[in-house]
Amino acid sequence: MTFLKIFNLKEDHMSETHKGQEQSIEDYRIQHPPYYLPVGDEVTLFRTAHESRVPIMLKGPTGCGKTRFVEYMAYQLKLPLITVACHEDLTASDLLGRYLLKGEETVWVDGPLTLAVKHGALCYLDEVVEARKDTTVVIHPLTDARRILPIEKKGQIIEARDEFMLIISYNPGYQSALKDLKQSTKQRFISVEFNYPPGEPEAEIVQHETQVSKEIAKGLVKIGQKIRNLKHYGLEEGVSTRLLIYAGQLIQKGIHPRNACEVAIVQPITDDEEMQRSIREIVSTIL
Amino acid sequence: MTFLKIFNLKEDHMSETHKGQEQSIEDYRIQHPPYYLPVGDEVTLFRTAHESRVPIMLKGPTGCGKTRFVEYMAYQLKLPLITVACHEDLTASDLLGRYLLKGEETVWVDGPLTLAVKHGALCYLDEVVEARKDTTVVIHPLTDARRILPIEKKGQIIEARDEFMLIISYNPGYQSALKDLKQSTKQRFISVEFNYPPGEPEAEIVQHETQVSKEIAKGLVKIGQKIRNLKHYGLEEGVSTRLLIYAGQLIQKGIHPRNACEVAIVQPITDDEEMQRSIREIVSTIL
Amino acid sequence: MTFLKIFNLKEDHMSETHKGQEQSIEDYRIQHPPYYLPVGDEVTLFRTAHESRVPIMLKGPTGCGKTRFVEYMAYQLKLPLITVACHEDLTASDLLGRYLLKGEETVWVDGPLTLAVKHGALCYLDEVVEARKDTTVVIHPLTDARRILPIEKKGQIIEARDEFMLIISYNPGYQSALKDLKQSTKQRFISVEFNYPPGEPEAEIVQHETQVSKEIAKGLVKIGQKIRNLKHYGLEEGVSTRLLIYAGQLIQKGIHPRNACEVAIVQPITDDEEMQRSIREIVSTIL
Amino acid sequence: MTFLKIFNLKEDHMSETHKGQEQSIEDYRIQHPPYYLPVGDEVTLFRTAHESRVPIMLKGPTGCGKTRFVEYMAYQLKLPLITVACHEDLTASDLLGRYLLKGEETVWVDGPLTLAVKHGALCYLDEVVEARKDTTVVIHPLTDARRILPIEKKGQIIEARDEFMLIISYNPGYQSALKDLKQSTKQRFISVEFNYPPGEPEAEIVQHETQVSKEIAKGLVKIGQKIRNLKHYGLEEGVSTRLLIYAGQLIQKGIHPRNACEVAIVQPITDDEEMQRSIREIVSTIL
Amino acid sequence: MTFLKIFNLKEDHMSETHKGQEQSIEDYRIQHPPYYLPVGDEVTLFRTAHESRVPIMLKGPTGCGKTRFVEYMAYQLKLPLITVACHEDLTASDLLGRYLLKGEETVWVDGPLTLAVKHGALCYLDEVVEARKDTTVVIHPLTDARRILPIEKKGQIIEARDEFMLIISYNPGYQSALKDLKQSTKQRFISVEFNYPPGEPEAEIVQHETQVSKEIAKGLVKIGQKIRNLKHYGLEEGVSTRLLIYAGQLIQKGIHPRNACEVAIVQPITDDEEMQRSIREIVSTIL
Amino acid sequence: MTFLKIFNLKEDHMSETHKGQEQSIEDYRIQHPPYYLPVGDEVTLFRTAHESRVPIMLKGPTGCGKTRFVEYMAYQLKLPLITVACHEDLTASDLLGRYLLKGEETVWVDGPLTLAVKHGALCYLDEVVEARKDTTVVIHPLTDARRILPIEKKGQIIEARDEFMLIISYNPGYQSALKDLKQSTKQRFISVEFNYPPGEPEAEIVQHETQVSKEIAKGLVKIGQKIRNLKHYGLEEGVSTRLLIYAGQLIQKGIHPRNACEVAIVQPITDDEEMQRSIREIVSTIL
């Protein structure tokens, strides 16, 4: 399993780092090539969008590889990647930065978006629809021809570097009337659809990440596909590639395949006993 | 593509600029003539309203050129333009300014509206209906014969300079009962309606911004028009000129037109599979 | 058009004024006689209420002259006028004042109501029903025989000067069950009803404010009256005198009367296409 | 009209008083005997409750004399009176006190309830049901045998002086399911019902407060009584004695009785045109 | 009537006490034996729970003696008692403590729960269901085998002294779906039911607290019992022992028994006129 | 009964500890082996998940041993355990840490999650679904291949130590539509189901924790099982092992078994009188 070593905080260095609190953009560079298997023209589209300075939206279900794809592209483009997991309490200030009292002075600390804009990094706002509305509006002037970031608290306008690119993710399965991106936001992005990888590549991914036998990997993917078909029968969301990998990891460590699937697949995706029984049956016919 | 160079923050100058934090109104001057193609008498109306010191409201759908029009007018009138993208958490203080602790003293930092009022700039409140209600009320004394801005926190009243003008935008398609401007606000503005440009000028715009062939530009606009007609069949909002430009940019960079339209038009404007199919058909009959 | 010069903040004086931050009640004196045409006994009633130290409520639709009337009375009574546009986030502290950190000391800064109470000014709370509930309660002890303002944060009670008078405005057309003044508040005010001026005086006002010909002025007023009759056919609120003046200003500057009415009347008061057509017809039969 | 001179803040003394910010309980003493006409055994009950150290609740409609009665009792008992008009944003801290930064030190400033408890004053919480729930709970240990006020922020418990008495008012006509005192609060008070005074005393009050002729006073009271009967026909609340006094004051200053009743009675109590006509008819048959 | 003298804050000592702000646990000791008449095995159960270090919940209606019982047990066990009246705005920090700025340093001030945990006091959270949810969760680790109080703000874990005991009260009559203790909270307490005392002891209590004659005391209790039976006919809650004592106190001071019952019983428990008549009838047949 | 001695705060050491405020990870080590009786393969699964660096979710009802299991595993793995009881007001900052003013400097204080990530501890978020949404999102990058904790306020990214493991608990019986973990969170954990222990082991646990006779222990467990069957007849949740232990403790201290079951079982789990009767019957047939 490829680990993304962003920076390894060692105990003895920690206190200094804490004092200095220097925000180094270099910390956001991806050191090792992330494992990613392209399944369509998403790599070309991303490169072209980046060259055209057009922002991009990744549409797709949870755990199908969107985050990994962005890491892969950041590595390919040799650019730092700043990822922000959005949530209901994320405000514009969390993205832009804020004043902090330090000794006797107030100092400005750049937020992740400001950092990316200034240094020409990729900025990935994961599940942006979860964020508070002011966040969505903050990205508007960055996503049209102006490509600027006004920081009202400082009375400052920052023009994005050419390398800067905004990426957002969006899971259409989740959206309700209450939580949807406004058209005036959506129409600022080109939008690439993601889905679970097809059988062949998904088995390859599972095997690569878990070291299980080809047979087991194929079996897990087959289970995944059959469960995803249950979605039309009341399952909230299909099983992610990530969970298939979890199951593979447990099997590889000696857990019986059915027990591994019970805790890595059946229990995580549903609390409904009826549905659990159906999934267990799928598992037991295949593994 | 014309880039609006407001000011280019260079790394080496940045730290100084940060220290000084001088809010210079000159930063808000538009340096290069923005590309804008007038389609009616909006330019004359804007000029007359400015001369009569009457505030103006721009009504229209997303991505049809309202922001560009305001930039164009600011350039024509040789006035700085301060744009505020309104959102649910925008308070009156965000517009007026606030006290900040600096060293041992509390200093007042003007908000964007105060800056504009003092220096006689254009102030553009984009999607003002999204802002909190106190914001709407703050603009009342600026939009009648008084043309004053009371800053209660400072016990001060500022009379607007003659050049100052307030512009707000408003998308009638969005408004619900909960989020509508009050009549006591609406009746303080003259109101100009905007829409997507007619076929000829829109093709000219797409071509100017993307450098695609006239034929491709015309094709994209034709697609745009046909999609906009779908609005009566359940499409939330028509496709914006901006998205047509995105498609053109991708095509110009070598992406196949249908793929370009898929990611720049089909995916951004709808998640509905049925609707996506209809739009794909429109695309494939034209390009 | 008569401009109310409260004080003209000149660039070169600004920094000093900012430093001192002296709240001078003199800044709230109205320098030039505001143009106001009495239409009933409102002037006498206001004077008598002021003499009897009874607070007053002005009831009526938007843009019919309530604010101008209060300015007129302030000028007549030679008293300063402090106006507060109320909104959903206006708290009692915004009216009363608050402690601010200044250098090493906390200093108290009087709010607009406290200022008015201490100096015997008129205090006009515009659309008081919009304010938060604590605001409404703050004015209770000022509006009965006690005429006192307790400032709990300072443990202080201020007795109002004899010249002090509280004026509130209220638009009955707006009120819903959720947003209504409580009887225990309403029954503390005498209440004068306002409405659009009758045809003759309204034409006089339009002409005075815009310099259009008598004929145009009469035409605009006739349009206004016909539109106000549409209120029973679904129009949210009639057209205000202010909008008629806007239309006149545009016509006087050379805009074609129908275009002027389109942007100053049709577009501001409704987004409903059906209703817009009806109003356009009214306009075209008269101008 | 008897004015309650609590303390007259003179301009020249103001700055000093502001500096010192001494909370003197003497400021809360009522200097002149308030005019109050007892209508039942309320005076005896109040005295007995005070002797028995039992808190009291005054139930009744707006403007019927509850506040005046409390002032009268405070004067009779020679005790200071601290009145707090409760509202939706009134918190426990507003009543108890809070820490304030003063120069380099944090100092505690007693709230009105703490002041009353320490100095043995009467504390009158007007419309307590409007306050936030924490306020209601703060008074619990003061209203049972313990008679203590725990100030958690200071880790302190203050036992009430014997003279201290808590009085709350409550308007049963207002209460909804959402806004009602809990039984665990109600059952801590003895409760005296108030209503508009009977005809004879009410006319005496109106005459005393306005100096109108006995005939006019009687006429106004008769109008009041007839309007109060309309309550069963959809009027939200009857007309208060206060409004009758307002009408009398205007008449005394020369306003025609019908005009005085229009602005002091008809307009304040209802916006319903039908209801206004009925009230006008009552007025015109009597005055 | 037995008064609980926790500490008597004398004017002359006050300023010093204020400066020092020492939170002495001794202030929470009960000086005089509270009057309490046991009606079941509640005393033994409380003692056993205390010995077993099991927390206890007291279930029952308002004013039936829960608070007095806890005071009685604290006195019997010779332990300090810290009572917190819970309310909707009570946060975990209010219980645990918080940092306060003092001169140039931030000092930590223990909240009531922390004080009790550290010093082995009884901590009584009255109507805990009213508190905010974080409060309920704060007590979880204190109410299982761990008996610890983690103070996250200080990164500290405090183990409760053996004498510490948590007591909560709960009125099942009040609970709605929205406001109920979670099972994961309820199942952490043994739970003792309280109710109004039976006739004999209740008369004894009333007599003890008011000094009225045995006959009057018995009459008041009889009235109480009959009113409590009305609960099935729409009365929100029965009359508390406390109100019977209030009535007795007024009678003892010379108020006519029916008047005393009117203000101490009829008016406090209901605003419904029908219900008031029924209660008055009960009163007049007995006293 | 085994007490978990995390650290025993002695009075005399307290003031120092307070000054220093050193957050020592050693304080979170479990000193004595917690008593836990494994009932399935949960121990192996936990160990494997820990080795595979896969986070774990424990699903099950209140009081069935989830917390004790985590303590047991922490002791077995010789790792510190940081437990956070989640609640509605728990924010991301509560987990991550915050800046505190200390003397003249602002110092950062690590939150419990940061502490665990840095030092390779187990971090147990109890009832994570109760926390605010930002909390849930904070754990996302910790629960995929990245295993990083971005602390946006410090512009820092901390990579988790290999020993670090995240454990969350979740009670499926509680979840409503409003309060459920998102699939994008659930699918990041393997998930082990917990339930009340089977009869034999549960009796063993009760006996071990209370020292009652085997017979009494078996009786209590039998009562527990019969009550749990009532869940299908309207009981909100079954009786927990914890309550059975409470009952045993009271019996052991000499309380009559039926009285012990009344206060430890009947009263805590339901307020419904009908249901209480049924449970009492179960109790009286067995003990």
Structure description:
Six copies of one chain form a homohexamer. In chain A, 42% of the residues lie in helices and 15% in strands. Chain A has helices at residues 11-20, 42-51, 66-76, 92-96, 112-119, 133-138, 183-186, 199-210, 214-229, 241-252, 257-269, 273-286, and strands spanning 56-59, 81-85, 97-102, 105-110, 122-126, 148-151, 156-159, 165-170, 190-193. In chain A, α8 packs across α9 and α9 packs antiparallel against α10 (241-252). In chain A, 54% of the residues are buried. Residues 1-21 of chain A have low confidence and may be disordered. Chains in contact: A-B, A-F, B-C, C-D, D-E, E-F.
Task: Name the features.
homohexamer, 287 residues, alpha/beta, 5-stranded parallel sheet, two-stranded antiparallel sheet, 9 strands, elongated, disordered N terminus
Number of β-strand runs of chain A: 9
Largest interface: A-B, 54 and 65 residues
Major sheet description of chain A = 5 strands, parallel
Give me the strand/helix succession of chain A: HHEHEHEEHEHEEEHEHHHHH
Strand percentage of chain A: 15-25%
Structural class based on helices, strands and sheet pairing of chain A: alpha/beta
Oligomer: homohexamer
Indicate the low-confidence ranges of chain A by residue numbers.
Answer: 1-21
Number of helices of chain A: 12
Please list the strands of the largest sheet of chain A in the order they lie side by side. 2-5-8-1-9
Show the helix and strand layout:
The structure is a homohexamer of 287-residue chains.
Chain A: H1 11-20, H2 42-51, E1 56-59, H3 66-76, E2 81-85, H4 92-96, E3 97-102, E4 105-110, H5 112-119, E5 122-126, H6 133-138, E6 148-151, E7 156-159, E8 165-170, H7 183-186, E9 190-193, H8 199-210, H9 214-229, H10 241-252, H11 257-269, H12 273-286
Parallel strand pairs in A: 1-8, 1-9, 2-5, 5-8
Antiparallel strand pairs in A: 3-4, 6-7
